[in-house]
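Dear Dr. V.,

Thank you for agreeing to look over these. As mentioned in my earlier message, I'm a first-year student in the group and I'm still getting used to reading structure tokens, so any feedback on how I've presented them would be very welcome. I ran two proteins. I've put each sequence directly above its structure. The first is here:
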Amino acid sequence: MIKRKFHSHIVPALTSAALAAVLAQPATADVDFGSPGSKVDLVIGYQPYYTESWSGVVNNGKQFWKKYLPSGSTAKFEIGLQGSVIVNAMTGEKQHIGYMGDMPAIASTFRNIKERGGTDMRIVAVLGTSKQQCNVFLVRNDAPKFNSGTDAVKWMDGKITSAPHGACTDRFARLAFEKAGVKPKRYLNQNIEVITTNFRAGKLDAAAIWEPTASKIVKAGIARRGASGEDFDALDGGFMVMLNDLISQRPDVHKGWLEAELDAQLFMADPANSDEVAALAASQTEKIDKEVLWWSLYGGYPKNEGGGDVKVQLDFIVTDRVQGLLNDATAFLYSLPKKPAAAAKIRDGGVTDEVARQIMKERGLSSPLAIVKVQKM
């Protein structure tokens, strides 16, 4: 049992620049998670407003974790509007397990450095990878009709564009601009609220944003979908991060939580559960219709708007494909002026997915666990 009290608090939405700006947080005393077999009280940072990490939404709603943790254990799920918020909470050991996108997950693995917080965090599992979850371009409604997503990005040459900088959207936007050979007039650093407002006001030509906000904006008629990672062979990903104190002190909890995570991913992948998954997401978010939430994970878009058959691939472990994503994303973070990554590659031990691999082997499964494909509503 953890011997520290935790106080819930409201964390304001941050732009993804916070990923780079809030690097140094004072470390607190180590948490005592108790001895193996004893009950444990966990605080989980998760992102119901980021579709690729919805296994956390499922685990929260279905409470699969109760099947695998010692009797009497508790799990308090706290919403982080961006992964950087969760990383900061974990740096202060106010949260113990985090569900987040690739960029904050990578940055978290470098927080063991004293100047960056001094808290050891590890990537322990993969929530999923995709080409159209974080990597989505929207264009203003009166933009031309494009034959392809590549044409849509070429149209952005000399235009006013935007993305939350330092996030997976930023990496995708810069890659797409480079591959399409374009240079926007302005490439602004804006959060999802400002992007939505500026599309409404006609002050923005295009923006890169993640799901489910991308589908929310499209379904509300505020902007159109223009392109995705499908057009540029660009992956994005979601990852589970865990405090190394929890890993080392409670191997039973480490394994138990990953068992529940595997159950959640399999549940999410079953087409028969799509309506329930959307309902769970609706119950844990505000001001997003259930239909929009369903569409963000299971709905399809035309190919000329960056649509593709695969919405999410549930990898669970760091395969060669996932490692390639981590390598590219880490190099990108290291290239930024404030360097959220302290090196061009993740440090040794920053990825610790051996237990996830063990669980898959014990269940006779292999990666990917499943592929979530486009469904008819």
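The second protein is here, in the same arrangement:
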Amino acid sequence: MTDLQELRADLACALRWAVRYDLHEGVCNHFSVAVPDDDGVVRGNLFLINPCGLHWSEVTASSLLLCDKEGNVLEGTREVEPTAFFIHSRVHINAPGAVAVLHTHQPHATALTLLEDGRLEMCEQNALMFDGRIAYDDDYEGLALDGDEGDRLARKLGNNQVLMMASHGVMTTGASVGEAFTDLYYLERAAKFQLLAKASGGKLRTISDRVRAHTRQQFATERAIVADRHFTALKRVLDAEEPTYRH
């Protein structure tokens, strides 16, 4: 079982790298990770989340907030942003597989959510990583300032790992921060490639159902390996260049 300090370091690392990859937006958006209860089981009752008002480039492991499902800050000196609480608390509770929940307005993936019936097309290798794993919320309902909206988003996510949120942004979830962050990174790459290809005026390629099914099987085992390698490398770079993220 990953200890609390390592969870803090992982989340701080993801936030720092979101800045480096240009996935952040001001001091908005939010990353969280569920913390095991006293018996070691993750139920979504407790979670770490970035505090309101800190730029992601300055977040450290110790500056993260530990909150309960009622919104009480148990550890930390700042406040949790209201929309962050209502989204993340409800997704952690209602989607058991969502140990890590990352929500951003990253440019290219968000651009897809602005298109009528915008979908990530299964026409490129990075996109195929998400085949059968994306849910789409086509009903923008304003700011998430109550639990009902958080519950609605959790229902839209269902058993998927990615939620494309119309006119809003994206959410990736996973069994670890590393898995969810690697999805966030490759989702942005896939969206960028699709938009660049469409901007050329050409027709997108199609990939056969046979190849899609085969590639889904390949990615089912490869995703976790890629995520572990990717996130381990990101922490290694930060340990050398910005070691204060662990403080």
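From my reading of the second output: The mean pLDDT is 97. The CA atoms of residues 178 and 228 lie 7 Å apart. Does that match how you would interpret it?

Kind regards,
E.
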